[in-house]
Design a protein that fits this description.
disordered C terminus, globular, alpha+beta, 3 helices, three-stranded antiparallel sheet, single chain, 10 strands, five-stranded antiparallel sheet
């Protein structure tokens, strides 16, 4: 089953522009795409609950809200089960390994799996350039194929409700 995630293009472009303009793009030691501007696709899972999926900028200093929390762009819809994800995440953070499970909330803590979506790829058209052009042409959403980590832009048409 193919899992396609949809994000508001304006928000994704804001994150991408931040990553591209940041003086440093950090990765964990040994991680892929060292110092390459990227969007981070994060999937947090807790057994028995629907996954939470969001995008972050890889730029440092981080893009933060006024309260200091990182700016995250949440997917408009997430699958019930995390089927169809790439087999090997670039990063895995299991908070249960850092903190005894349930000590904070009384229930299991999320496991965050992360993938990097580079914004500049040698020999290919830049996803950042595609996103900029799409935003200027009226496209409204960024679509990510969860299995292949490919990006696409989508122009959504909203149908007017018809009277019954």
């Amino acid at each position: 089953m193919t899992v396609r995630l949809s994000f508001a293009l304006a928000g994704a472009l804001r994150l991408a522009e931040h990553a591209s303009a940041a003086p440093v793009n950090l990765r964990r030691p040994g991680g892929p795409f060292t110092n390459t501007p990227a969007l981070q696709l994060i999937v947090e899972t807790v057994p028995g609950h629907r996954p939470v999926v969001y995008l972050l900028s890889s730029g440092v200093p981080c893009l933060n809200k006024p309260d200091g929390a990182p700016v995250a762009l949440y997917a408009e819809w997430t699958p019930t089960l995390p089927d169809g994800w790439p087999a090997d995440p670039h990063e895995v953070i299991d908070l249960n390994e850092l903190v005894p499970a349930g000590t904070i909330t009384g229930r299991p803590l999320p496991v965050a799996r992360g993938w990097y979506l580079p914004l500049h790829r040698p020999g290919r058209r830049s996803p950042l350039a595609v996103m900029r052009a799409a935003a200027g042409a009226g496209y409204s959403h960024l679509s990510i194929d969860a299995a292949s980590l490919t990006l696409a832009v989508v122009k959504r048409r909203h149908r007017h409700l018809q009277p019954c």
